[in-house]
Design a protein that fits this description.
With 188 residues, the chain is α+β, with helices and mostly antiparallel strands. The protein contains 6 helices and 10 strands, in the order E-E-E-E-E-E-E-E-H-E-E-H-H-H-H-H.
Length: 188
């Protein structure tokens, strides 16, 4: 969060107007308000900056009360909803610099799920595919060594796709995709 509050802009949180404001630095504050207690006494509450915490995925989260219950919100979603128009109706938010705690509007953009995944992959933020491909996949029946053997066996011309499928206990289409390098592309 930015400590220089000179250029900080505050807006009502959509859906919580008159209760909470969100700033262009990703800070949330409750507003001064009065409420009627169950004993009939009107009580004033002074507004204050809300505490945030980091969730298991590394995002800053804040709880906002709608009167009855508290709802957990990711700060970056509150910032984009309130500061960045979503004219293309995209469903996710992308942190441009990859820092999940940098929730300023100039670091956030609306994105499709595909755009968000591609950005994470391109910038090295997502390593999900590294453990899901090849031997790292729980679906894998082959090792990199066996894939190399399979390709080598096919290149000699001594084995058909069906022969290799039987030898390596996979289906013929799997062998074809390996040979065409549609799968196991990372194995040289």
């Amino acid at each position: 969060m930015n400590s220089n509050t000179e250029n900080e802009v505050w807006k009502d949180v959509l859906g919580y107007e008159g209760r909470y404001k969100i700033s262009s630095f990703g800070r949330v504050r409750s507003l001064d308000r009065e409420f009627l207690r169950s004993d009939g006494v009107i009580t004033s509450i002074k507004g204050k900056t809300r505490k945030t915490h980091i969730n298991d995925d590394g995002y800053l989260v804040v709880g906002l009360r709608d009167g009855k219950r508290e709802i957990k919100w990711k700060i970056h979603r509150l910032v984009v909803i309130n500061f960045i128009p979503n004219s293309e109706n995209k469903e996710t938010v992308n942190h441009i610099d990859g820092n999940k705690q940098n929730n300023t509007p100039n670091n956030l953009e609306w994105a499709t799920r595909l755009e968000n995944s591609r950005h994470a992959w391109k910038t090295g933020l997502s390593k999900i595919y590294d453990h899901q491909r090849g031997e790292g996949s729980h679906h894998s029946k082959l090792s990199e060594e066996r894939v190399r053997e399979l390709r080598e066996s096919y290149s000699t011309g001594d084995y058909s796709l069906i022969d290799l499928a039987k030898k390596y206990l996979v289906c013929k289409s799997t062998v074809a995709r390996i040979i065409k390098r549609e799968s196991w592309k990372h194995v040289i």
